[in-house]
């Protein structure tokens, strides 16, 4: 990941990208806005049996079946009760061969952040359990620290590892 | 290539592949010795369209190749050449080559030039022999048939010579340079030198000849003159001499010229030194492979880019018409209803109901018509078998008659695509294992020629495909002993014939004594069954020793829509495919027996069925019914096993449109897909065989024993 990071840094020091930021508890996160397909209010979903805790279920998005992941649980945070601000961000996730649409449940959507490549810092390494591998960088915005998420890693990897564990079983 | 042309490529390729199928079928039906004009005409027309099209699109290698085939066919059509089995076989092989060439061009891959050239040479060979055989009368006929203008435009322009001296040539006192000089005197000579064989300086042997040449001689030198020049070194080199016509790809001629060349007859002076040429063509491979591997890489990349096309489908115009009719009806109903809604009062309730039921009917009919569009006759799959049987039976020395019925039975396009390989496998099996050698058959008192019947027909919402042969049938003893060897069954089993036959679907099971390249490796039957199960179908074997065997495949008509039974557990709704349901019953507590304290089972007529609680399998909390007499047992069947699925309640039956879970998520054990219910919510469709596997895993041994 670091290679990739430095590569993009040298190539596009001054280019800026837009990120959609959202809150999970009192933390701020961001995803590349080009990956966002739509933002919709939380509505009940159809549970998928025997799936990981963070997979809330599937819903009907204009005729296609889209899985909904709980972002807090995905990152190993405590779950919370969904409220009226709870929203689902539908993201485009690139896999090895295909593209999927996956919805993630977040507390609330905050803002669109314009971040210059040069202002993005690497995430520090924490010991055990802090999932920094999904964080592609940190950026400061008005005294807040926004963690930029690598959508592909975050939402694809689990599908693959699950399949592996399924095969192993 | 301009972009304007590219948009027609798809159509061209589709038509060409269809044309190839027509040619292939025609050739297979052709009875050597007798000439059916209409049949040859059909084949000829197909070839001609491919040539014309490929010329238009600038696929010159294809058009020039087809040209040679066409010439041969033309002679057969005019009765100037007898239809010999050899010629038919050569044409069949050419169809294969052409199919490869078209396929490669379509996918942006690289055409196997060696193969094409070799085949072209073979055809030219036959043509040449014809000019010798066919009486002198034929020549004027040909000339007469052409207008003067055509003749001059398509006249032979010169020679394409591939000259590759053997290393020792110079030691015999010959010099390639002298040859080239002599050739240059005959006309305009274009020289391409191939340096690829040249060793590094350290390994250079001054007396050896390392160079080879690709020469284009434009001029009216005769073949004899060329032969004179090469006469001294004939044995010291690999040499290929091919005439260049106006239509030859090297000349990059215009389409019109290519079309004119269509009716061209090869020059009778063409005297190809056959064998050496074939050898030569294959030998050139080393030089070309290097180049082609590079081409292939670029080709592959293009293939990936173009891969998302998704293919197209040719639809009978009558189906489109009925679709349009239906939409018209729907529009009328809609306008009627909206008119009704403008000032609605209760006394119009009856008309509203009427309108709604009309709407329902039209929607259903529309749905059916749309489904019809995806339906294709199974002949798309069947059409490859005459060829397969023809080739394999002659290879194995068996006499086999293939009979096909019900080719017009229509099935979903996806089924057509996926059933092909399993069917090929089964037909090959019948050929290889089923039908005996002619002598054996005579001894057994059967006709020398074996029969394979391929039938397709509709039966109760399913399509049934049968592969039936009158061979020796399955050998029960052999399967039995093999299964015991492999530890699949006990020595003192008491399995029925059918259960024994089922064993051949186990992975790695083959009873063939000798592994042939046709079958017998034991990879296959399990794959066949898996493929068919994936399509939601089933496969069965019938066999009678000495009389033959039959494989019966049942497939659902369509994969997009399914009749389902809605069941509920707690507040969750699932769909059970109606085909898997045998019956639904309510059991009394005392009917339930327990195995080892856990496994619940109940007796239905004379069979003990295990009970699967859906809420346990799927971890559903707070089901309404936890006691078996509170809910319902749906008796379902999957993979030949029966079980009672315990649910809270049944809601109703409805047709559901199957949506993929995998498109955005992944496969889920026990779930075959999802669907959207009337209220817009998603409901999951149960996969009964998957559910049984899930149950096997969840509670170790309980189910396996009772199954």
Summarize the largest interface: chains and residue counts. Answer: A-B, 25 and 26 residues
Biggest sheet overview of chain B: 6 strands, mixed
Strand tally of chain B, please? 22
What order do the SSEs of chain A take from the amino end to the carboxyl end, as H and E? Answer: HEEEEEHEEEEEH
User: Helical percent range of chain B?
Assistant: 40-55%
Main pleated-sheet profile of chain A: 5 strands, mixed
What does this structure look like?
The complex is a heterodimer of chains A (169) and B (707). Chain A is of the alpha+beta class and 169 residues long. Chain A has helices spanning 2-11, 71-74, 151-168, and strands spanning 16-24, 27-32, 36-41, 55-61, 64-70, 87-94, 99-106, 108-116, 135-141, 144-149. Helices cover 19% and strands 43% of the residues of chain A. In chain A, a hairpin with a 2-residue loop joins strand 4 (55-61) and strand 5. Chain B contains 24 helices and 22 strands. In chain B, the strands form five sheets. In chain B, strands 14-18-19-17-16-15 form a six-stranded mixed sheet. In chain B, strands 6-8-9-11-10 form a five-stranded mixed sheet. In chain B, strands 20-12-13-22-21 form a five-stranded mixed sheet. In chain B, strand 21 and strand 22 form a beta hairpin. The two termini of chain B are 63 Å apart. The model of chain B is unreliable at 132-154, 247-309, 514-522 and 701-707 (pLDDT under 50). The chains are: A alpha+beta (169), B alpha+beta (707). Chain A binds chain B through residues 44-51, 57-60, 63-67, 100-102, 159, 162-163, 166, 169, and chain B through 572, 617-620, 659-661, 663-671, 674, 676, 680-684, 694, 697.
């Amino acid at each position: 990941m670091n290679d990739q990071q430095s590569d993009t840094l040298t190539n596009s020091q001054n280019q800026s990208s837009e990120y959609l930021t959202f809150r999970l508890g009192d933390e701020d996160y961001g995803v590349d806005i080009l990956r966002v397909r739509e933002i919709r209010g939380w509505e009940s979903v159809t549970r998928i049996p025997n799936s990981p805790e963070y997979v809330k279920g599937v819903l009907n998005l204009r005729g296609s079946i889209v899985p909904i992941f709980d972002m807090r649980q995905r990152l190993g945070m405590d779950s919370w009760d969904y409220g009226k601000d709870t929203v689902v961000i539908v993201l485009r996730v690139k896999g090895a061969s295909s593209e999927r649409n996956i919805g993630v449940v977040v507390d609330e959507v905050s803002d669109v952040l314009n971040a210059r490549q040069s202002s993005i810092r690497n995430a520090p390494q924490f010991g055990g359990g802090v999932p920094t591998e999904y964080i592609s960088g940190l950026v400061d915005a008005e005294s807040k620290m926004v963690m930029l998420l690598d959508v592909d890693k975050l939402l694809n990897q689990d599908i693959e590892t699950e399949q592996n564990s399924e095969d192993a079983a | 290539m301009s972009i304007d042309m590219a948009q027609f490529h798809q159509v061209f390729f589709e038509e060409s592949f269809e044309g190839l199928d027509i040619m292939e079928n025609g050739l297979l039906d052709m009875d050597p010795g007798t000439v059916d004009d209409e049949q040859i005409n059909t084949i000829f027309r197909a070839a001609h369209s491919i040539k014309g099209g490929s010329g238009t699109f600038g696929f010159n290698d294809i058009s020039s190749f087809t040209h040679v085939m066409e010439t041969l066919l033309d002679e057969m059509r005019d009765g100037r050449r007898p239809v010999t089995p050899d010629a038919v076989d050569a044409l069949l092989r050419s169809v294969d080559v052409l199919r490869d060439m078209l396929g490669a061009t379509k996918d942006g891959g690289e055409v196997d030039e060696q193969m094409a050239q070799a085949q072209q040479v073979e055809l030219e060979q036959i043509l040449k022999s014809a000019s010798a055989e066919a009486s002198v009368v034929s020549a004027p006929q040909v000339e007469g048939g052409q207008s003067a203008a055509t003749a001059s435009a398509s006249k032979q322009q010169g020679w394409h010579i591939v000259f590759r001296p053997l290393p020792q040539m110079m030691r015999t006192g010959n010099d390639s340079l002298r040859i080239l000089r002599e050739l240059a005197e005959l006309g305009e000579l274009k020289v391409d030198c191939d340096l690829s064989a040249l060793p590094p300086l350290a390994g250079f042997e001054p007396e050896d000849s390392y160079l080879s040449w690709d020469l284009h001689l434009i001029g009216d030198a005769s073949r004899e003159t060329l032969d004179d020049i090469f006469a001294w070194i004939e044995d010291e080199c690999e040499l290929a001499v091919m005439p260049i016509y106006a239509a030859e790809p090297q000349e990059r001629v215009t389409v019109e010229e290519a079309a004119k060349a269509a009716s061209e007859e090869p020059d009778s002076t063409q005297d190809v030194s056959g064998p050496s040429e074939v050898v030569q063509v294959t030998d050139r491979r080393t030089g070309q492979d290097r180049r082609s591997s590079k081409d292939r890489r670029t080709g592959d990349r293009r293939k990936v880019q173009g891969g998302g096309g998704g293919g197209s489908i040719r639809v009978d115009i009558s189906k489109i018409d009925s679709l349009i009719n239906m939409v018209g009806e729907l529009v009328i109903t809609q306008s009627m209803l909206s008119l009704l809604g403008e000032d609605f009062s209760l006394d119009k309730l009856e008309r509203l109901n009427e309108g709604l039921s009309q709407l329902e009917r039209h929607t259903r009919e529309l749905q059916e018509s749309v489904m019809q569009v995806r339906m294709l006759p199974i002949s798309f799959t069947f059409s490859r078998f005459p060829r397969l049987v023809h080739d394999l039976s002659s290879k194995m020395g068996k006499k086999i008659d293939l009979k096909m019925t019900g080719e017009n039975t229509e099935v979903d396009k996806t089924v057509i695509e996926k059933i092909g390989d399993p069917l090929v496998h089964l037909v090959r099996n019948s050929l290889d294992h089923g039908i005996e050698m002619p002598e054996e058959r005579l001894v057994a008192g059967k006709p020398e020629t074996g029969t394979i019947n391929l039938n397709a027909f509709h039966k109760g919402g399913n399509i049934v495909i049968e592969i039936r042969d009158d061979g020796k049938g399955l050998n029960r003893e052999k399967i039995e002993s093999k299964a015991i060897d492999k530890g699949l069954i006990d020595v003192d089993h008491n399995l029925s014939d059918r259960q024994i036959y089922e064993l051949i679907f186990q992975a790695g099971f083959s009873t063939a004594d000798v592994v042939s390249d046709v079958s017998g490796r034991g990879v296959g039957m399990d794959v066949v069954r898996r493929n068919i199960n994936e399509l939601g179908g089933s496969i069965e074997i019938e066999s009678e020793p000495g009389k033959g065997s039959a494989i019966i495949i049942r497939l659902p008509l369509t994969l997009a829509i399914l009749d389902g039974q809605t069941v509920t557990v707690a507040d969750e709704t699932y769909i059970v495919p109606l085909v898997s349901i045998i019956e639904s019953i309510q059991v009394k507590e005392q009917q339930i027996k327990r195995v080892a304290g856990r496994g619940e089972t109940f007796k239905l007529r004379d069979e003990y069925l295990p009970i699967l609680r859906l809420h346990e399998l799927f971890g559903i909390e707070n089901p309404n019914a936890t006691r078996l007499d509170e809910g319902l047992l749906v008796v379902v069947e999957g993979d030949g096993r029966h079980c009672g699925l315990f649910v809270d309640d049944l809601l109703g039956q409805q047709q559901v449109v199957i949506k993929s879970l995998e498109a955005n998520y992944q496969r889920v054990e026990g779930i075959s897909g999802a669907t959207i219910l009337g209220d817009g919510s998603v409901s999951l469709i149960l996969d009964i065989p998957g559910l049984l596997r899930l149950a096997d895993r969840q509670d170790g041994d309980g189910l396996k024993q009772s199954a």
